[in-house]
Design goal:
By secondary structure, the chain is an all-alpha fold. It contains ten helices and two strands.
């Protein structure tokens, strides 16, 4: 058998509260941030429940077992999870609580509540790096798409932590990135979606609330 490689690239969906644990175990996390204007509205597979279906379900049978690729379901659970909370592991961080309080004011509009969840949990990721003092490179998906191959390579080699195979990361991103026209269409769709103005106002309110408590964490990606 050959020697085990010293490094490898894995793309994972992680419990955001556990990123610090992965760092302590030797992982080198890199976050690829996709702005809300390039994320929403989400698309769901045929047969998926609507946001209203999910709300009705929560107040009746409370059965979230769906067999389709339902991105709305994903954000629905993200939005309501902090509201439900955990008696054994209550949220104690004052800055996260400040963000959560604004999240709870989101009107009952699908886009607004999805954007609220997206912003809240990205802040949790950023805040964790601040509190636990580990390096977390943030790669903007907008930059990945709009940059030339040489620009992207240069930027990532400056940002990625030592010990990480930057050529492997660059190769993966170049192979999987979308076209610039795709980004532009996403931005147009976001601005045309009902609740757009309310969503943007909520994000601004959340950032303002966070900055009254957390003056250290860089929130520029969330703006």
């Amino acid at each position: 058998m050959g020697a085990r490689p010293m490094s490898f690239l894995t793309r994972e969906n992680l419990n955001v509260w556990r990123v610090g644990d992965y760092v302590r175990n030797g992982f080198l996390p890199v976050a690829c941030f996709r702005h809300r204007k390039h994320t929403f509205p989400v698309s769901d597979a045929v047969g998926s429940p609507t946001w209203d279906d999910l709300v009705d379900n929560m107040h009746s049978s409370n059965d979230f077992r769906y067999s389709t690729l339902c991105r709305s379901c994903f954000y629905f659970m993200m939005f309501y999870a902090p509201r439900i909370g955990s008696r054994d592991n209550p949220i104690a961080d004052r800055a996260v609580l400040a963000a959560l309080r604004v999240t709870l004011t989101a009107p009952e509009i699908a886009l607004v509540q999805m954007v609220a969840a997206h912003t809240l949990f990205w802040y949790v990721i950023l805040r964790s790096a601040t509190v636990h003092a580990y390096h977390l490179p943030i790669i903007s998906y907008d930059m990945v798409v709009r940059s030339s191959a040489n620009e992207l390579s240069s930027h990532l080699k400056e940002q990625l932590p030592p010990g990480l195979d930057s050529d492997l990361v660059i190769q993966h991103l170049l192979k999987s990135r979308k076209e610039v026209t795709w980004l532009e269409r996403r931005e147009e769709r976001y601005e045309e979606t009902p609740g757009y103005e309310e969503a943007e106002r909520l994000v601004k309110d959340m950032i303002t609330a966070i900055r009254t408590v957390d003056t250290v964490t860089d929130l520029s990606v969330l703006e």
